[in-house]
Amino acid sequence: MTLRVAIVQQTCTADRKENLAKSVEAIRHAANQGAKLVLLQELHTGLYFCQTENADMCDLAETIPGPSTEQLASIAKELQIVLVSSLFEKRAPGLYHNTAVVFEKDGSMAGKYRKMHIPDDPGYYEKFYFTPGDIGFTPIPTSVGKLGILVCWDQWYPEAARLMALAGADILLYPTAIGWGSQESDEDEKNRQRQAWMLVQRGHAVANGLPVMVANRTGFESATPNSKQGIQFWGTSFITGPQGEILAEASLDKPQVMLADLNLKRNEQVRRGWPFLRDRRIDAYQDILLRFRD
Fold first, then answer.
1. Does residue 172 contact residue 164 with C-beta atoms inside 8 Å?
2. d(CA 254, CA 83)
3. Would you call 12 a catalytic residue per the annotation?
4. CB-side exposure of 168: number of CA atoms within 13 Å?
5. Contacting residues for 230 by C-beta, under 8 A, at least 6 apart
6. Which of 173, 146, 156 lies closest to 6, judged by CA?
7. Cα gap 80→73, rounded to integer Å
8. Mind listing the pLDDT tens digit of every residue in the chain (294 residues)?
9. Which CATH class is domain 2-272?
10. Identified catalytic residue from 42, 104, 126, 221
11. What is the spatial distance between Cα 51 and Cα 180, in angstroms, rounded to a whole number?
């Protein structure tokens, strides 16, 4: 089975309607190029507000279903595609999640995933806003296959990718928002960070024999309005095959729609040649549940 897929890399502003319009335009472009599965970047309806701790930002959260899911479901149905979105979910008063939503080609909601690993670093104060997910690592069945959706910080954890693979995922997908803080000036260090980010996700493809799709933001976003402090999101959205081979890669600094053709039959062919799942020593991994082996 060959599946044409697309990732959308875009810039964002404080104008929700403008951001959604950009997303929809890019989705249409992807569908016109034959894409049947489209992945949007993390929190694509607005600026990356987690650079500071400000409770007023919680007003940006919306219910699922809600206004954004209604619009995205409509475009998925119109274009007959499977669409993966990323939204700031209001689950209850004072309870919020960073949530990916998958829409089937008939416009129905195929499922959702709530981000499990929540960072708390300078410029990425997500623990202030997001409650860790409680759905677990469960692939979402769709007409194009079982989608192992993970979100941004999840991408550094081989356990998350492996659990999705063990549950039958056909593809791993990562909506993402990552870049360099404005205080970072060492070009060599910046390049090492970006390469490490790509390398770890390509490693998930290799270790699990699965294609990987990663959609990242691009552009500079201020920490506060008109501030010179902020994050330069490094783009570089990419798609790999099940051996980690790069099939498509976007630029660092431009909005782009990247497409690739995935031959999902290769998943089994690759796993037969590199039978990592067969050779796992599940009888010897108990300590993986420990925080650290003292």
1. yes
2. 22
3. no
4. 7
5. 51, 123, 181, 182, 220, 221, 222, 223
6. 173
7. 10
8. 799 999 999 999 999 999 999 999 999 999 999 999 999 999 999 999 999 999 999 999 999 999 999 999 999 999 999 999 999 999 999 999 999 999 999 999 999 999 999 999 999 999 999 999 999 999 999 999 999 999 999 999 999 999 999 999 999 999 999 999 998 899 999 999 999 999 999 999 999 999 999 999 999 999 988 888 999 999 999 999 999 999 999 999 999 999 999 999 999 999 999 999 999 999 999 999 999 998
9. alpha beta
10. 42
11. 12
As a whole number of angstroms, the distance between CA 197 and CA 153 comes to 10
Domain limits, the chain: 2-272
| Residue of 176, 198, 207, 209 whose CA lies nearest to 246 | 198
The sign of the torsion formed by the CA atoms of 106, 19, 114, 216 equals positive
| CB-based burial, 194-214: b 16+ in 10 Å, e otherwise | beebbeebbebbbbbbbbbbb
Going by C-alpha positions, the residue among 110, 246, 238, 248 that lies closest to residue 174 is 238
Q: Rounded to an integer, what is the distance from CA 27 to the centroid of its chain?
A: 16
| Alpha-helical runs (H) found in 46-157 | 67-79
Given the residues 22, 36, 112, 115, the one annotated as active site = 115
Instruction: Spell out the alpha helix ranges (H) of the chain.
Output: 16-32, 67-79, 158-166, 187-208, 265-273
- 285 contact partners, CB below 8 Å, separation of at least 6: none
Residue 272 tokens, joined: 């037969």
Q: Is 17 a catalytic residue?
A: no
